Amino acid sequence: MAQHSACEPEDAGAGVPVALPADLSDRFDPVLHDVRLGSHTFRILTVRDPDALLESITPEAFAVDERLPYWAELWTSAFALARVCLEEEPLAGRTVLELGCGVGLAGIAAARAGATVTLTDYEQDALTFAGWNADANLSRGQRSRVTLRHCDWRTPGSPGVFDVILGADIVYERGVFAPLLHLFRQTLAPGGYVLLAEPDRTPGRDFFAFAAQEGFLVDTRSVAVERRQRTTHVTIARIRRGVRP
């Protein structure tokens, strides 16, 4: 794995309260974070205390999907992936699919870089926040190239064909490994690739090894993200179709 240290975003302050439509403000305590990535600044709406959302999950819903409110956190992996989209990838004019978009930072960065972006998540609340953030951070022309769509990786339907697939912190359990690779095969355009940002932990490494075993070409490198006076190492993986064994 190549080592690379170039990512130094800032997450300013503890968040600024913001008004939401009544149907959302009744259920959430939303805050705005100023996020600076190089020369770019974003104002990202998220939830002040994602852990508080755990109380709203019924035992029945958890039993079906083990559903947890991961979407409500502004993950460090999303910072790293957003900066890669802004500064390193030639995304202008390309079609981009973000999986598990959460509040949408990486996909919105891709739209700023000139891509036509489809933001997807399993949770409708995530898409609501991502849509708000797209409205707040993109010009009218950029926003016209962004769509939001519900997506269950296990039964994705026909999401379309894309030049680039993005995902930040999405391979945290083995149950998603095979469905994700199936989705990659189904949706990657010829010559397309996947960009995943994952913290340096075992599930991510296992997924990259699994993808390679299934015939994908996997290249990884490490970036150092400075955030909240702490350095976190995030793996950026570029995954392409190879020859299936």
List keywords for this structure.
single chain, alpha/beta, Rossmann fold, globular
Can you give me a brief rundown of this structure?
By secondary structure, this protein is α/β, with parallel strands linked by helices.
Strand content: 25-35%
Strand line-up in the sheet with most strands:
1-10-11-9-8-5-6-7
Q: How many beta strands in the DSSP annotation?
A: 11
Number of domains: 1
CATH topology: Rossmann fold
Q: How far is the N terminus from the C terminus?
A: 23 Å
Helix content: 25-40%
Sheet having the most strands: 8 strands, mixed
Structural class: alpha/beta
Q: Under the CATH scheme, which architecture would be assigned? A: 3-Layer(aba) Sandwich
Radius of gyration: 17 Å
CATH superfamily: Vaccinia Virus protein VP39
Number of helices: 8
CATH class equals Alpha Beta
List the helices and strands in order: EEHEEHHEHEHHEEHEHEE
Whole-number average pLDDT?
85
Q: Tell the overall outline.
A: globular
Helix-strand layout with pairing:
Elements: E1 2-3, E2 10-17, H1 22-25, E3 30-37, E4 40-47, H2 59-65, H3 76-87, E5 95-99, H4 105-112, E6 116-121, H5 124-137, H6 140-143, E7 146-150, E8 162-168, H7 177-187, E9 188-199, H8 202-213, E10 217-227, E11 230-240
Parallel strand pairs: 1-10, 5-6, 5-8, 6-7, 8-9
Antiparallel strand pairs: 2-3, 3-4, 9-11, 10-11
Helix pairs in contact: 3-4
